[in-house]
Input
Amino acid sequence: MLTVVGMGPAGQQWLTPAALAVINSASALVGARRHLAQFPDFEGETFTLGADIPALLDWLAARLDENIVVLASGDPLLFGIGKRLVDHFGIAQVRVIPGISAVQYLCAQAGVDMNELWLTSSHGRQVDFDQLVEQNKVAMVTDRVCGPREIAAGLVARGMGHRWMVIGENLAMDNERIRWLRACDEPGEQYDMNVVVILNER
Ligand SMILES: C[S@@+](CC[C@H](N)C(=O)[O-])C[C@H]1O[C@@H](n2cnc3c(N)ncnc32)[C@H](O)[C@@H]1O
Output
């Protein structure tokens, strides 16, 4: 059985009991370094998730009769490894345990409802800012290439400098930082891992 588990934004406290139960019964764990580090006493085989997804798929394919658990940040099916696993192996072979996504966590902290929220990602992909500015409420998971500064520039270039950005960095971690600013306020350059919510009005 192959299971992909949502780890929540960070830390054990945001992991659901269902996720923890599955992890505790795993014969092998797959995950990013920061997720595997949460289980220092795990004695089974581990596979550190990197950029080489085909290698991961081969490794998993050879172990489908074992109890393998893949640790995914946030929710596995929100711009996560869950989609790739379901597309590759089929849902009949993949059990998905949902998690609290970084977007959900940020909305909760900022008091922003998620009704009609347009979800997108700049993580390894090109952002369509023309389509983005057509939306009233957007949440974006980001990467180092396109983060708060580039989003602000994209908004300002389309005359949307008045829009609010809620920038959530290192969510659920000791160094969490959540800031509200308008796109025209030009966010600085230095950002740790972050999610951005963009709003027409506060
Ligand atoms: C590949 S995406 C995965 C999103 C994840 N599936 C989710 O539901 O949150 C990775 C991106 O998620 C965001 N992210 C994940 N955990 C975060 C955290 N604790 N704080 C801020 N952003 C986070 C960042 O934008 C990061 O680059």
About this structure: Residues 9-10, 72-75, 78-80, 101-103, 123, 141-143, 168-172, 193-195 surround S-adenosylmethionine (CB under 6 Å). DSSP finds seven helices and ten strands in the chain. Helices lie at 17-24, 33-36, 53-61, 81-89, 102-110, 129-132, 148-157.
